[in-house]
């Protein structure tokens, strides 16, 4: 079920039950030192963990558009693993440090004109990230503060709760069909589990990118808030989810998500082979090149 080195949610020893720790401290009286805060950062992601609340803030900081390159995916997985293994951390809020973009999805240049070995390594990293995030023991809240197509949408969909900035210029969706490619079954499963079969079917076939208000109507995001209130709201939602005992919430999450996670784990190698066969077709390579050119033209 879990990536190597990570115990399945239901098999972790009681020490993992973060709810056994004392509850988060109320506001500190004047004169006392500030709540301990630990941070770590790599080239692509910055993380700050507030030990008093048990909440980490993870910010994507990979200009221009937080595209999920092999390096980004690897750093994202490592950051999640660090938090997952840290007993002080119970929840993570995922957002972007860049204005207007949450994440532009998988880095298309990683899927163009590269070797079979590279495609295999890249796709394994995409799988790994999803297994970690979708199967995380922590409460995961996506604070979507910009556009979030394809793989960016998958990141948000894999969280427990999604809050989006109320800006109709920001859109979110699995738009793979627009690029001439097909979202794999586990992207689809994750989407169906959030919005239901009919909405997912229509949206996937049309490769729709839904402006924030529409995404909210469809249930793709749980809440819309004015941009300046996004982080405050994310913190409030996190506190609400953390008020429950961890073990009950975690086991419930496992119950809801296990079948979908197991399906990829059981077919992981086959899924990598399918990806390589599909992505190396000349017709698919041509579609991706044309899409990249379209992005560049749109700019000029
Ligand atoms: N990968 C690589 N480069 C990208 C990507 C990307 N996903 N998105 C944007 N860029 C590049 C642009 O080409 C541009 O490069 P340059 O500066 O060299 O010209 C630069 O980033 C900035 O882009 P924009 O000028 O377009 O920035 P804007 O702020 O105007 O717009 C958007 C930002 C809205 C994110 C816009 O760039 C966009 O729509 N990007 C495309 C997003 C997209 O369609 N992503 C889909 C990726 S595929 C995926 O995630 C799942 C694949 C599943 C594979 C299944 C196969 C079997």
UniProtKB/TrEMBL annotation:
Pathway the protein takes part in: Lipid metabolism; fatty acid beta-oxidation
Domain of life (superkingdom): Eukaryota
Signal peptide residues on this chain, from the entry's feature table: none
Gene Ontology CC: mitochondrial matrix
Cytoplasm is among the record's keywords: no
Places the protein is found: Mitochondrion matrix
GO terms (BP aspect): fatty acid beta-oxidation
GO MF, any single term: delta(3)-delta(2)-enoyl-CoA isomerase activity
Chain segments annotated as coiled-coil in the UniProt record: none
Entry's EC annotation: 5.3.3.8
Reactions it catalyzes: (3Z)-decenoyl-CoA = (2E)-decenoyl-CoA; (3Z)-hexenoyl-CoA = (2E)-hexenoyl-CoA; a (3E)-enoyl-CoA = a 4-saturated (2E)-enoyl-CoA; (2E)-tetradecenoyl-CoA = (3Z)-tetradecenoyl-CoA
PROSITE patterns: ENOYL_COA_HYDRATASE
Key words, A-Z: Acetylation, Fatty acid metabolism, Isomerase, Lipid metabolism, Mitochondrion, Transit peptide
Family per record: Belongs to the enoyl-CoA hydratase/isomerase family.
The protein's role, per its UniProt record: Key enzyme of fatty acid beta-oxidation. Able to isomerize both 3-cis (3Z) and 3-trans (3E) double bonds into the 2-trans (2E) form in a range of enoyl-CoA species, with a preference for (3Z)-enoyl-CoAs over (3E)-enoyl-CoAs. The catalytic efficiency of this enzyme is not affected by the fatty acyl chain length.
The protein's assembly and partners: Homotrimer.
The protein, known as: Enoyl-CoA delta isomerase 1, mitochondrial
Lineage: Eukaryota, Metazoa, Chordata, Craniata, Vertebrata
Gene name of the encoded protein: Eci1
């Amino acid at each position: 079920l879990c990536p190597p080195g990570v115990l399945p949610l239901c098999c972790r020893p009681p020490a993992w039950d973060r709810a056994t720790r004392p509850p988060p401290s109320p506001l500190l009286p004047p004169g006392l030192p500030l709540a301990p805060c630990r941070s770590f950062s790599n080239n692509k992601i910055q993380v700050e963990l507030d030990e008093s609340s048990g909440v980490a803030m993870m910010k994507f900081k990979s200009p221009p558009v937080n595209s999920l390159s092999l390096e980004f995916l690897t750093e994202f997985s490592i950051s999640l693993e660090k938090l997952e293994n840290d007993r002080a951390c119970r929840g993570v809020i995922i957002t972007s440090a860049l204005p207007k973009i949450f994440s532009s999805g998988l880095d298309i240049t990683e899927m163009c004109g590269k070797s079979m070995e590279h495609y295999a390594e890249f796709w394994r990293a995409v799988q790994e990230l999803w297994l970690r995030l979708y199967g995380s023991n922590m409460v995961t809240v996506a604070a979507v503060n910009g556009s979030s197509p394809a793989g960016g949408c998958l990141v948000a969909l894999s969280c427990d709760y999604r809050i989006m900035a109320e800006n109709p210029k920001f859109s979110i969706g699995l738009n793979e069909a627009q690029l001439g490619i097909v979202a794999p079954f586990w992207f689809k499963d994750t989407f169906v589990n959030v919005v239901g079969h009919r909405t997912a079917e229509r949206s996937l076939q049309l490769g729709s990118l839904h402006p924030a208000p529409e995404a909210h109507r469809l249930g793709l995001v749980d809440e819309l808030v004015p941009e300046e209130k996004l982080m405050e709201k994310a913190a409030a939602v996190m506190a609400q989810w953390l008020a429950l005992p961890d073990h009950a919430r975690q086991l419930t999450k496992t119950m809801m998500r296990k079948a979908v996670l197991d399906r990829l784990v059981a077919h992981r190698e086959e899924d990598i082979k399918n990806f390589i066969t599909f992505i190396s077709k000349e017709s698919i390579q041509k579609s991706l090149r044309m899409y990249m050119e379209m992005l560049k033209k749109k700019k000029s």
